[in-house]
Amino acid sequence: MKRRQLLVTLGSALIGLPILGFLIKAIAQSKTPASYDPAAAQSPPNIPKSSKDSQDPKNLADANTEITLETTEEPLLRFAAIADNGFGSPDQMAVAKSMWETYQQKPYAFVLMAGDNIYSYGEIKLAKAYFEEPYAPLLKENVKFYAVLGNHDIIKSNNGLDQINYPLFNMSDRYYSFTKGDVNEGTVEFFAIDTNRNAPWEAQLAWLDQQLGKSTAPWKIVYGHHPLYSSGRHGSDPELASMLEPIFSKHKVTLYLCGHDHGYERFKPINGTTYIVNGGGGAPLYKFTGSPQTAFVSSQFSFMTFDVYQDKIITKAIATDGKVFDRAIVTKI
Ligand SMILES: [Fe+2]
Fold first, then answer.
1. Non-local CB neighbours of 332 within 8 Å, separated by 6+ positions
2. C-alpha span between 173 and 194 (Å, rounded)
3. Distance between Cα 72 and ligand 1 center (Å)
4. Alpha helix locations (H) across 148-200?
5. Ligand 1 centroid to residue 42 C-alpha, Å
6. Predicted confidence (pLDDT) per residue in 198-243, tens digit
7. How far is the CA of 21 from the centre of ligand 1 (A)?
8. Which residues place a Cβ less than 5 A from the ion ligand 1?
9. Which of 44, 63, 211, 253 has the highest CB neighbour count under 10 A?
10. Low pLDDT (below 70) residues in the chain
């Protein structure tokens, strides 16, 4: 980072001290793409206290969860989400198969793809094998995938530009927003963000604050690769949380979806926002310890669907056998 850019950052009243610390760490960790080390890109863990009870399904329900709920009412909008999927493994294929079987029973309109789209270095030449082939049946049905950049996606891809320019990832930029659903009813506005340390943070945070402020959508969902909260290997990221959480809270963001930790963890709402780690898309799984804020945790290969209604969003985590292993109701803040 150039000195002038840092000085501009120092002067930013919007971002303040949290991003300054984040950027100083980014400068200290910055390397040329050629010498980039994926391990170093994975933020140091800040693992919450272990909660063995949270692994027990009997103890996983919270006030925001309705385990037995099933409704025949059709949602206004249904979409799916994956992350950490582009591994080219049998496990990725198993999740992809489950996604296709679920789609055949309950079609979803599109898929959010929350990063690490192509392991290990984001090379776009692998997109055919790691993306187009696993999800071919869905792509054939014109199901669009909306990607963000994970830490693996920026290593040998012109810092992610190759993926941004790849049409099937539907990325208009490093960060972007789009609206889905009926304007008058279940409209959801999605905000896709770049959570990598070398992201253009100052501009991105200003954009996010402004766009969320302008949004009239009843539901606002943000997704990026890195968790703010996680009890997996990488753990929570207090610096990321200090930058994003005030913006989420100010604009009543309903959900933040991410990956990076390979497994599934849903948190009880924090300042009104529900945080979900959904990183079981195909890369090798990590151990999760659970934490006092965890509503449900299970490290398994999986994906998610979301049924959007006027007054609620029903979230489902679905395993490779097609079974729903976590279901929750998210309501408006
Ligand atoms: Fe990652």
1. 218, 219, 252, 254, 311
2. 9
3. 36
4. 161-164
5. 7
6. 999 999 999 999 999 999 999 999 999 999 999 999 999 999 999 9
7. 21
8. 116, 150-151, 260
9. 253
10. 1-70, 183-184, 186
Give me the domains of the chain, ranges plus CATH numbers: 31-331 (3.60.21.10)
Pairing between strand 188-192 and 219-223? parallel
Q: What is the pLDDT of residue 73?
A: 86
Q: Give distance in angstroms: CA of 241 to centre of ligand 1.
A: 17
Output the six-digit token pair for 312: 């609620």
pLDDT at 232: 98
Cα 71 to ligand 1 centroid, rounded to whole Å: 35
Q: What is the pTM of this model?
A: 0.83
**pLDDT (0 to 100) of residue 22:** 55
Q: 260 alpha carbon to ligand 1 midpoint, in Å?
A: 4
Any residues with CB less than 8 A from the CB of 215 and at least 6 apart, and which? 177, 189, 251
In the reported structure, the alpha carbon of residue 282 is separated from the centroid of ligand 1 by a whole-number distance in angstroms of 12
Give the pLDDT confidence score for residue 187 in this predicted structure.
87
Number of alpha carbons in the 13 Å side-chain half-sphere of residue 145: 30
Q: How confident is the model at residue 24, as a pLDDT?
A: 45
CA of 179 to the centre of ligand 1 (A): 26
Rounded Cα gap, residues 157 and 250, in angstroms: 35
Q: How much is the pLDDT for 36?
A: 27
Phi-psi region of 157 (alpha: psi -120 to 50; beta: other; left: phi over 0): alpha
